[in-house]
Amino acid sequence: MTVKYSELKKRLNIEIKKPEQSELASLTHYLQSNTEEARGYFENSTLDYLEDYSAEVAEPWFQGLLPIKWDIPFPPPEDPKFTFIDLFAGIGGFRLGLQKLGGKCVFSSEWNHYAQKTYEANFGEVPFGDITKIDESEIPNHDILVGGFPCQPFSIAGVSKKNSLGKDHGFLDETQGTLFFDIVRIIKEKRPKAFLLENVKNLVSHDKGNTFRVISNSIDKLNYTFYPMVLDGKYFVPQHRERIIMVGFDKKRFKGEEQFEFPKMPQNPPKVIEDILEKSVDPKYTLSDKLWNYLQRYAAKHKAAGNGFGFGLVNFDGISRTLSARYYKDGSEILIPQEGKNPRRLTPRECARLQGYPEKFKIPVSDTQAYKQFGNSVVTPLMQEVGKQIIKTIFEYDLTPAS
Ligand SMILES: C[S@@+](CC[C@H](N)C(=O)[O-])C[C@H]1O[C@@H](n2cnc3c(N)ncnc32)[C@H](O)[C@@H]1O
């Protein structure tokens, strides 16, 4: 006998509402847990939540935790090869890639309710909320920590000044107010075998390189190796999207001897813009005369001043500019020319394709939210390739006989 997730969802009222509902996060994490140990992390709050559902708790499916039939697009792997946690999870761009590699997500955190909704519709799990409020000891053990942390500016003036004076400063100095340091405290406590972080390319040059130096120093202090590299998603999808990818391995475990290499980029991009366009598109995506005139005037003004290149009309046989989280505003960075009409913006489904999301990925939110979510996300096949190299490195090291 099995029980369907969609039935449980109805019976247990798994409905994401504001304000934050960490009990739903606990419950869905509990249902996804495949070991006693992992379940232990979520048991108490799950039982609290289920107090109102005493009949459910007494039911045989719950007592024996019968296998759940995951009638969702991206169920957890049945026979996991490794575990990971998904921080700043957004809509699960990393999770898609790592699950495909046989990874089991044991914890996710994302505080935006609309993103949580998309995440749950696809993975059957409600992420926990604000990571700054989650104690690191409440997070299950895992092999890989994954996170595309927000590219929020680092207020490190004080720290960098101390650095430049060669003065020592406490780790705590650096932990003020930045989400990167939530990643640091979790790595410090849980010591995953490896981490995979992602951010905008400019992180490297931000504040004259100081921000990146603080990151690199913090990783060093954690006693992890550090492999940063800027990679472009254009080798996997028809979109120019450069991101800094940061990978590291626990020196306590690998002694700095692991053999990690970033993936080789395929030479020919498999797709061009035309390949990701929908056949029939609602006229609502066509720019109004007002907006189109405005964008043209704006571009002309900036061209005359010698800067910027305004809107981005795509070539059907080329690739697009980078999709951003502000695409919902005017769509100006990626516009599709139309014969005899004003250009149009991409549909949310086309944005999903531009980030390499499979067709079965559900989009249960408004267009505005969907644009923000895909603009914030990652080129999933690229992250999968990086993930593959991390797994390979870990497995190969474990198989190497000790000398
Ligand atoms: C750059 S996006 C990452 C997107 C993700 N990699 C994906 O594939 O969709 C950063 C995410 O961090 C979330 N976030 C920001 N601050 C947070 C916090 N304190 N706790 C949890 N999530 C947070 C944002 O809502 C946003 O979705």
Question: Could you please describe the fold and organization of this structure?
Answer:
The protein is an alpha/beta fold. The chain folds into 3 domains: 1-71, no CATH class; 79-266 and 380-399, Vaccinia Virus protein VP39 (Rossmann fold), CATH 3.40.50.150; 273-376, DNA Methylase, Chain A, domain 2 (Alpha-Beta Complex), CATH 3.90.120. 40% of the residues lie in helices and 12% in strands. The chain is built from 18 helices and 10 strands. The protein has helices at residues 5-11, 22-32, 36-49, 54-58, 60-63, 93-100, 113-123, 157-164, 171-174, 180-190, 210-221, 251-254, 273-276, 289-304, 327-330, 348-354, 367-376, 380-399, and strands at residues 3-4, 68-69, 82-87, 103-108, 144-147, 194-200, 227-232, 242-249, 335-338, 341-345. The chain has a 6-stranded mixed beta sheet with strand order 4-3-5-6-8-7. A two-stranded parallel sheet has the order 1-2. A hairpin with a 2-residue loop joins strand 9 (335-338) and strand 10 (341-345). Helix 2 (22-32) packs antiparallel against helix 3 and helix 6 crosses helix 18. The radius of gyration is 23 Å and the shape is globular. The relative contact order is 0.11. Residues 155-162 and 164-177 have low confidence and may be disordered. The structure holds S-adenosylmethionine. S-adenosylmethionine is lined by residues 88, 90-91, 93-94, 109-112, 115, 130-132, 148, 150, 179, 376-378.
